[in-house]
Amino acid sequence: MKHVVILGGSDGTVSAFRAARRLGLSTICVDMRADAPGVAEADEFVHVSTRDVPAIAAALRDRDRLAGLLAPGSDINLPSLVELARMLGLPCALTDETLRVSTDKAAFRETCLRLGLPSPHYSTDPEVRPALPVIVKPVDSGSSRGITIVREQEDLAQAVEHARAVSPTGRIIIEQLLTGQDLCGEAMLQDGRIALLGLSRRVTEPPEVVAVGHDMEPGDGVLDKEVTRQLELVCAEVGYRDGPLNVDLFVEDGVVTLIEMGARIGGNGLGEALGLMYGVDTVEATVRLAVGERPDLTPTRRGPASVRVLRAPHEGVLRRIHGLESLPDSAEIVVVAFPGDHVFPYTECRAKLGYVVDHTPPDLDALVKVDVR
User: Which ranges form a coiled coil (predicted)?
Assistant: First the structure.
């Protein structure tokens, strides 16, 4: 049996482990957390940090039938993926420049400006005093960590320190706060062209900025064509030709502004939602690419898909999640927290208890109760 190594065991990796199993591949999870959700899904576990490339390479170097590497759900493990693929002679579609724009928000902004694409005003100088409102973010952290919207000058310094505290390199970016439609895009790239694209409306509960759900619909209109055009320009610029894409964007008065991009499967069920919308298992397709195969991305259907996040009402110990059995049979349910786990309010993506993907928005508030003591 061939083995595929999945870097990280967060909730965003669970669908990849399951897809690999469906393809008859054995899975190896690498994570510093023995209780990470992906560990329970894997056939084997390498208990080291995903950033400790020498230790991972030492654990894998003599492994027979090692077929590929995958880093789904988060950009943070992409640098290790590229380095390990080169060390171990495994397939990797990511160029150095693709890696750079996926892991550095400032580098992505530079690339968009170089291509003449719309861009918000921004700065990476923590001492700058920009025109407000702005959004302050780490340049190299994901899962909506360290993000603050600033509307008053006296709040700027605290927002900068909050972002720096969660940045692995201590670097931040301050961007003009855009208005309009706040959308996410999930796509599959093949031979340098966008083969599948799904744009989703982010469902939030202000004042929090973290999404509690996504509603995705297929479209062939002006918006989809413009997003496709911009993504293909960026991918050509950085040499990325085959694989998944996850992108955040704003649309206002017909102007599309790409905010950030990751060359990986989106977390929060977005990869599964794109597949559900087109009748193509996009997670399986990504696993096939990781082991050097060419997947079939021909759509077999077109229809909407939605994701809703399972979340705790307050901090405490999870007792039980009631009502999941009442969800439709068509729903794909991923649960990553279990009775006895200490859980937190959903202010960042990693605090989720799981998610549900279906053709229509699942009414979790009516059907599901999260019991926390």
Answer: none
Provide φ and ψ at 364, rounded to 5°. -65, -35
CATH, residue 133:
3.30.1490.20
Distance CA 170, CA 161 (A): 9
Q: Determine the residue type at 85.
A: A
> Would you say 136 and 150 are in contact if contact means Cβ atoms under 8 Å apart?
yes
Domain check: are 296 and 198 in the same one? Answer: yes
Same-domain status, 270 and 325:
no
Q: Is residue 110 part of a domain?
A: no
> In sequence order, what are the beta bridge partners of 162?
none
pLDDT tens digit sequence for 65-117: 999 999 997 899 999 999 999 999 999 999 999 999 999 999 999 999 999 99
Distance CA 186, CA 175 (A): 23
Other CB atoms within 10 Å distance of the CB of residue 309: 22
Average predicted confidence (pLDDT) for the chain:
94
Q: Is residue 157 part of a domain?
A: yes
Range of the domain at 136: 121-176
Instruction: Give the CATH number of the domain where residue 269 resides.
Output: 3.30.470.20
Confidence of residue 336 (pLDDT cuts 50, 70, 90): very high
Mean pLDDT of 325-347: 92
Task: Name residue 215's amino acid.
Answer: D
> Could you give the number of structural domains in the chain?
4
